[in-house]
Amino acid sequence: MLKNQLVYKKIDSFVEKTKNNYASVAVLFIDEVEILFIKRSENMPTHKGHIAFPGGKKEKNDTSIIHTAVREATEELLIPDYLITPFGYIDSVDTVEYKFEVFPILCFLENKPKKFNKNEVQKVLYASIDDLKHEKNWLYRGFYPNDWIFNIEDEILWGATAKMIRNILNLDLDSNQDSELHP
């Protein structure tokens, strides 16, 4: 079972508490074999064109970090919320561009989306969990400490999203690599 292979915390009272300023992302697992990523639109205020998880910052009516992640995923992927089943979370991650805590919420997604919100998303991408788990598929770019990247369909997964994946899959990559890749 996939849950036994991941590092995460079970949904608890912490995630149900309302926090002031934060962002949440939905890490969407499909059929326990792949993870959904989006390429953010160039129209977005932050992280333009980055490979990311669906997500965004808290809105006034959001009741928890889970609610924010699910709401954002439904808005970006144009899917109903009943297709998303949250089951866990990992500790928040900071991003360079975004000054709030970003909470990754792990969810099962019942079906792949058939369309997406083109104002927020350029395209939807999928990566095999098996490919993401293999250390040999990660490259050390070295632009900053712990700068590991992963290629998905000719796009580069890097930064906070890559760090979240490595944490969830328990990948402790050696940052003293000799090789570098400059995309």
Question: What does it look like?
Answer:
This protein has 183 residues and is α+β, with helices and mostly antiparallel strands. It has a domain at 2-129: Alpha-Beta Complex (Nucleoside Triphosphate Pyrophosphohydrolase), CATH 3.90.79.10. Helix content is 17%, strand content 31%. The strands form two sheets. Strands 1, 2, 3, 4, 5, 6, 7 and 8 form an eight-stranded mixed β-sheet that branches. It has a three-stranded antiparallel β-sheet with strand order 9-10-11. The radius of gyration is 16 Å and the shape is globular.
What is the correct CATH architecture of the domain at 2-129? Alpha-Beta Complex
CATH-defined fold name of the domain at 2-129: Nucleoside Triphosphate Pyrophosphohydrolase
Extended strand count: 11
User: Largest sheet, described in full?
Assistant: 8 strands, mixed
Percent of residues in beta strands:
25-35%
The run of helices and strands is EHEEEEHEEEHEEEH
What average pLDDT do the residues reach? 89
Taking all Cα atoms into account, the compactness measure Rg is: 16 Å
Q: How far is the N terminus from the C terminus?
A: 35 Å
Oligomerization:
single chain
CATH superfamily of the domain at 2-129: Nucleoside Triphosphate Pyrophosphohydrolase
Poorly predicted regions:
177-183
Helix percent band: 10-25%
Give the structural class. alpha+beta
Count of DSSP H/I helices: 4
CATH class identity of the domain at 2-129: Alpha Beta
Shape: globular
